[in-house]
Design goal:
Helices cover 28% and strands 25% of the residues. By secondary structure, the protein is an alpha/beta fold. The radius of gyration is 21 Å and the shape is globular.
Length: 347
């Protein structure tokens, strides 16, 4: 069967290829064989494979899986053949999610509600997990707080906005283009303020302080930050805020959740956070399956994401699904941030 894999060439450029792979001949006691119906494509962070000593010639691509159970191991108790399930393949998996069948440990899967489509489930499971991690686990979101979502029109940003609205949080969001701004202004429930950072005349800090009466926001979720003033703006794929801007607009006791894995805080930055009694958290949703102690909470989040999809609380931002033969081109576009997210369907 065919699957999508990435490999690094000598110039450290990520290259994606479709290649044949062999399915495991045997199924483990607690494993579930899933016939894949759809698989979402998200950008691949190659560095994390090196950080975790998972160096291989190729790494499988496509880990957000939805499908039907076709076989279960002798000790599996949670699932039966023909059950519809959804899950995220672990980082150390050796098989691509775009293969026709994949093996999962039964404790990494949750049922897919009947009302939820294959495409919606695959497209929302990872971003939903990330939104829960940012807002509940890291920021301890509460009713009446104010949240700033940077790049609110991204798939992750949209689900974060919807989750915050569900819990009674006032939401501000930045838009990276006129189209993004129009999309966010039409969201329902509505965003309290859309800040068009694509316009050089718009000051994000001033807008946030104005909207909060000068008090600052309670939670900030970034989509990357600019660390140095001297970094050429032409190299940016999207307008990023400076770390000083985020610290400035953060309120007393606020939470800054960052996706910048190389964030560097100078002593004045740390002192400003200290004066505000503010906290800084790093958003890495891969850690959920790093310890079995958090496995129950992880599965609870996945179930709740599916439940909110079923009830319409979550309405993911998705493009039209693509067939397997377009997966390579689609993945290259996703990796270069030319498109937000793609879902591949098995025809």
């Amino acid at each position: 069967m065919k699957g999508l894999y990435c490999r690094l060439n000598d110039s450290e450029e990520v290259k994606f290829v479709i290649q044949e792979t062999d399915a495991p001949a045997t199924i483990g006691n607690h494993q579930v064989k899933v016939q894949v119906k759809s698989c979402a494509l998200s950008p691949v962070d190659v560095r994390i494979f090196n950080d975790l000593k998972l160096q291989r010639d190729t790494a499988p691509v496509g880990r957000e899986i939805v499908g039907t159970v076709c076989q279960v191991g002798p000790k599996v108790t949670f699932f039966r053949p023909d059950d519809e399930v959804v899950g995220i393949l672990p980082l150390d998996t050796e098989i691509s999610g775009l293969c026709s069948t994949v093996l999962f440990h039964e404790q990494l899967l949750v049922p897919k509600p009947e009302k939820v489509s294959w495409v919606s489930a695959a497209g929302a499971v990872r971003d939903g997990l990330r939104a829960y991690t940012a807002l509940h686990t890291l920021a301890h979101m509460a009713v009446g707080q104010t949240l700033l979502v940077l790049d609110g029109a991204s798939p992750f940003g949209v689900l974060s906005i919807q989750l915050a609205h569900y819990h009674g949080v006032k939401v501000l969001a930045t838009a990276h283009s006129p189209d993004d701004q129009k999309f966010l202004e039409q969201l329902r429930p509505s965003v309290a303020r859309v800040i068009g950072v694509w316009d050089a005349k718009v000051d994000m800090v001033e807008s946030c302080l104005e909207e909060t009466g000068g008090l600052g926001v309670d939670i900030v979720i970034d989509a990357g930050v600019k660390l140095y003033d001297e970094r050429p703006e032409s190299h940016q794929q999207q307008p990023l805020p400076h770390k000083h801007d985020i610290i400035t607009l953060l309120g007393v006791g606020g939470h800054w959740v960052t996706m910048e894995d190389n964030l560097q805080l100078d002593p004045p930055d740390a002192h400003s956070l200290f004066l505000k009694a503010a906290s800084l958290s790093f958003l890495n949703d891969e850690v959920w399956i790093a310890s079995t102690a958090r496995q129950g909470r992880y599965l609870h989040i996945l179930r709740d994401v599916m439940e909110k999809l079923s009830t319409g609380t979550f309405r993911p931002l998705l493009e039209d699904p693509v067939p397997l033969y377009e997966a390579t081109v689609s993945m290259e576009m996703v990796q270069k941030r030319q498109v937000r997210k793609r879902v591949v369907v098995q025809l």
